[in-house]
């Protein structure tokens, strides 16, 4: 047994630690039965460089489709192209409003202890804008991740990489041909830029980027394709929000709205989050609540890990990978 797995088996015996280990073991059990894992990702996981372990999970066929905020999609590439320009602020808890303003005026946007340069992706921004323009001119409509894949397919793009290519989960997903669902694309830097390009007349139409309901249709087709081959699909959730609720709802949509009543429920569910159970919060809802919405079944393995995903997710990934 490798170091991480041995450490967890020895020390993770109770409370959140036990739940973490059980979730990792059940992930392996699902894959051992020929199942697949769907991962949803909120928060700033790409900025915390979760890609270092997540990319390996994708390469080793431990993750088979992803729903994430558009910010996580783009921030993995921001890190790939601009990592050396990032600024670390370890003392972020002590910053005054004046110090925050100084960061802003210096061209930095802070995410906890990591400041992303305002000029992110400047080396390649004109390239992705050209992809939007060309698509609009020719009447094409593509999903956000398809533009990212097209960008990464350009022959000379690797010269802009500032981190090892093995640390980019989007690049790994492209190489494995994974679909990436990004509901709420407009809630991202590139979504803002795209809207501005349309308003300025540089991009002919908003239709160059495919909309949220089209993403739901794509996800429904992906899920039913797995069901058609009797492939159980698990759901691993980092945080909450639109990335998670959008995607987990595909099952009740298929059953209740499309009336495909033999649609299987999600075959596994685990969530890492720091939200406490409260009134009406999706992120803080216990997994059992999802049974009432037709997302999970009574016997679905369910795990709720109340912890910091930047700490726990790499450990679970390491265990699943046999590290």
UniProtKB/TrEMBL annotation:
InterPro entries: Deoxyhypusine_synthase, Deoxyhypusine_synthase_sf, DHS-like_NAD/FAD-binding_dom. The keyword NAD applies. The keyword NAD applies. Keywords: NAD. Pfam families: DS (PF01916). One of its GO terms (molecular function) is deoxyhypusine synthase activity. Gene3D superfamilies: Deoxyhypusine synthase. GO terms for cellular component: cytoplasm. Belongs to the deoxyhypusine synthase family. This is Deoxyhypusine synthase.
